[in-house]
Amino acid sequence: MKIAILSDMHFGFAQGTEREEDPYEAANEAMEKALASDLILIPGDVFNARVPSTETLARAMHIFTKPILSRSGIELADVVGKNRNDISPKSLLGTPVIAIHGTHERRVKGLMNPVQALEKAGFLTYLHCNGVIFKKNGEKICVQGMSGVPDQYAENVLKEWNPKPVPGCVNILMLHQSVKEFMHERVPYTLGLDKLPKGFDLYILGHMHKPEKSSYAGSPVLIPGSLVPTQLTKDSTKSKGFWFFETETRELKFIPLKIQRIIYFIEKDSREEMEGELNRILSGKYAKKPIIRIKGKIQSNLEKEIKNRFGDRAIISFKKELEEEEIPSRTLEEHRLSVQELGKKLLEQNLKEFKLDPKIFEPVFELLLEGRSDEVLDVLTKKPRLSGEKPKREEPAKEKPKPQPQAKPSTKKGLEKFL
Ligand SMILES: [Mn+2]
Predict the structure, then answer these.
(1) What does the alpha-carbon distance between residue 273 and residue 264 come to, in Å, rounded to a whole number?
(2) Ligand 1 centre distance from Cα of residue 211 (Å)
(3) How far is the CA of 259 from the centre of ligand 1 (A)?
(4) Cβ of 27: how many Cβ atoms within 10 Å?
């Protein structure tokens, strides 16, 4: 069988900017080419936000209609810990798509994330700590997936789930986590490769945006990389694309996108050198305006001038030395969710001030966003406070009190909200 692997398409990224079409164009090209496969796997970050706009949702659904209309001859054979009724027959008509949610889509348990929404609408099969088995021409393939969980819980959720390869199948394990070996900056609590269960034929890791191939316990580890560069770092200059995996030969092949934005970095202090470099880059031919990131001592009038002169041929972005406003202005422009992140931070501070356990801020924030204030009160009055603090309001005893996640240190209790 031939499996296509597309990752981190980030629908909705750069909305409202010159790059807003990029995620759709990239995913469209990758998806059309991926139709040459029997099965399509997506290890997370289909969307750039946990609550995408209706425009974003509609455009995503438009792209996900393509695999439904293509023929593959593959059949669903069995499920592993997944409710078969959750898999829509519509999603099995053509080339099935199997996806997990990523960091950008994770929502509090009980609220539907956008990848689940696509499953509900019959576009794909969504996995979180479960799996599916497909068969074609006597060959069986089992795909098991764990959607993105906060880094500090990843190891325990994986341990608790404890996925095992299914005998008689080609076994694929798909995750969306920061994995230590592939992180270029130190992130606390990252999962080490050695924590993955052994015996799978292929490990697929979403989340890291730079494509890479590695191995673990004698099997290939694939970091498919993102379809669009979401951050302008040196890592993002690597070509974007998707992958084919041949189950018979175990060959992994990278298919670069024909149309993609090339990113350049210029580090010059003099105006002449800067312009010389820009002219040299822009003498080339590009399918899409390249992104040129300029670093150096830049006066704001020079920035304007350069944008005026070259802005019709390139997307110019400045990284000014000692400029603080640069980061927020970029994130506000390109990552809509950072407004939410800001709100979250404020709420977290407030909860601390009121001696409430900051761990509950995430569910509280999400429920507030949803306008479910009754449930917010519930969470705030029932969950334990920081050690030594007594709850301000005691609820009358109910017949069946809900288990309190932080009451016992047992891993299982703490994991409930992610499993
Ligand atoms: Mn991503």
Answers:
(1) 15
(2) 12
(3) 20
(4) 26
Q: Are residues 168 and 225 in the same domain?
A: yes
Same domain, 50 and 136: yes
Please list the pLDDT of the chain residue by residue as tens digits (419 residues).
999 999 999 999 999 999 999 999 999 999 999 999 999 999 999 999 999 999 999 999 999 999 999 999 999 999 999 999 999 999 999 999 999 999 999 998 889 999 999 999 999 999 999 999 999 999 999 999 999 999 989 999 999 999 999 999 999 999 999 999 999 777 788 999 999 999 999 999 999 999 999 999 999 999 999 999 998 888 888 999 999 999 999 999 999 999 999 999 999 888 889 999 999 999 999 999 999 999 887 777 888 899 999 999 999 998 866 544 444 444 444 444 456 667 777 777 777 777 776 667 777 777 777 777 777 777 777 754 444 444 444 444 444 544 444 444 444 555 666 76
- 324, β-bridge pairs: none
* Position 26 in a domain: yes
| Cβ-based burial of 222 (10 A; exposed 0-12, middle 13-18, buried ≥19) | buried
| Alpha-carbon distance values, 211 to 42, 73, 163, 385 (Å) | 14, 30, 25, 43
The CATH number given to whatever domain includes residue 162 is: 3.60.21.10
CA of 174 to the centre of ligand 1 (A): 14
Q: 339 lies in a domain? A: no
- What spacing in Å lies between the alpha carbon of 272 and ligand 1's midpoint? 37
Q: Domain limits at 231? A: 2-256
Q: How far is ligand 1, taken at its centre, from the CA of residue 338, in Å?
A: 14
Secondary structure (3-state) at 170 = strand
Same domain, 219 and 297: no
Number of domains present in the structure of the chain: 3
pTM of the model: 0.82
Which residue among 230, 256, 282 closes a domain?
Answer: 256
Shared domain for 247 and 275, answered yes or no, is: no
Domain end, chosen from 256, 286, 312, is at 256
The answer to whether the beta carbons of residues 43 and 208 sit under 8 Å apart is no
Cα of 74 vs centre of ligand 1, distance in Å, is 29
- The Å distance, Cα 176 to ligand 1 centre, comes to 9
